[in-house]
Amino acid sequence: MATTTLSRWDITDLTPAIGCAVATDKQTLLSGARASDIRELMEQRGVVAFPQIDLSDDEQIAFTHTLGTFAHEDGESKGGQDTVYPITMDSSINPIAEYLKGAFFWHLDGTMSDKPILASIMSARALAPEGGETEFCNTYAAYDALPEAEKQRIEGLQVVHAMWRSQLYVYPEPSHALLKQWMSRGENTLPLVWKHRSGRKSLVLGATALQVVGMPISESEDLLIGLRDWATQPQFVYRHTWSIGDMVIWDNTGTMHRAMPYDHKSGRLMHRTKLEGEEAFA
């Protein structure tokens, strides 16, 4: 009589409000058999870590395809092929490394789009001797924990987002030419409270948040920075300390993230793939 060996699938919550680690094997991930479980974990926990799973680039691409539609950088594949994207401060590897310096501040990806990416998947290829962790905060949990009066106060508010705002964190005195280049990316007006089709709500914040529509700038700054501080309190945050071979996937629609400081000459290298968005801001 044939016997069936069940694949390993052990889940450990990393903090009460955000993050879980899954101990499993490559075959299980690449088969797609647990794809719906991973998507559910991602939606519930925000961040799903696969410690030292050691997927190759081709395996990471294949794994990404099991979860949804593969998202190409800038909407294009290279030579018709799906590729991983290098996250590094080494401009010889990534020509727009300077732009990536904005990743050191709390943000979610895709605020310049009506439909942001669903998730990012990142694997560690080389680490800095110190620093370089990635922090995530749960913007669902942060919204849920707000006092009811604050929820009512921010309900229906719209916020203008601009890529150039996030770059001012890195370069507070850009040349006019550089500012014009940033501004060519345009602006986008988004709800402060995202009412997801699931019925849940999350906060839409981060370094691209420029100003609450119809609100004086000082009042707007007070609100947006206050909410950012609220959402990034320790109880809503998970910090991932990377090991070579770790792979982490996070729900870009219900979390913010940032890289922690490290020596930009250290050679730190991450390989990223993404899932196309499935839900517009609403």
| Strand portion | 25-35%
* Helical residue percent band: 25-40%
Counted up, domains total 1
Which runs of at least 5 residues are low in confidence (pLDDT < 50)?
Answer: 1-5
What is the chain-wise order of helices and strands? EEHHEHEEEEHHEHHEEEEHEEEE
Biggest pleated sheet: 8 strands, mixed
Approximate shape: globular
Number of helices: 8
CATH superfamily, by name, is: Clavaminate synthase-like
CATH architecture: 4-Layer Sandwich
What is the CATH first-level class name?
Answer: Alpha Beta
Separation, N- and C-terminal Cα atoms: 54 Å
Please count the beta strands (DSSP E, at least 2 residues each).
16
Give keywords:
alpha+beta, disordered N terminus, three-stranded antiparallel β-sheet, globular, single chain, eight-stranded mixed β-sheet, Double-stranded beta-helix
Description:
This protein has 282 residues and is an alpha+beta fold. The chain has one domain: 4-Layer Sandwich (Double-stranded beta-helix). Helix content is 26%, strand content 25%. It has helices spanning 26-31, 35-45, 57-67, 139-144, 148-154, 163-170, 176-183, 217-231; strands spanning 10-13, 20-23, 47-50, 70-71, 85-87, 119-126, 134-138, 158-162, 187-191, 193-195, 201-203, 209-212, 237-240, 247-251, 255-259, 269-275. Strand 1 (10-13) and strand 2 (20-23) form a beta hairpin. The radius of gyration is 19 Å and the shape is globular. The termini are far apart. The model is unreliable at 1-5 (pLDDT under 50).
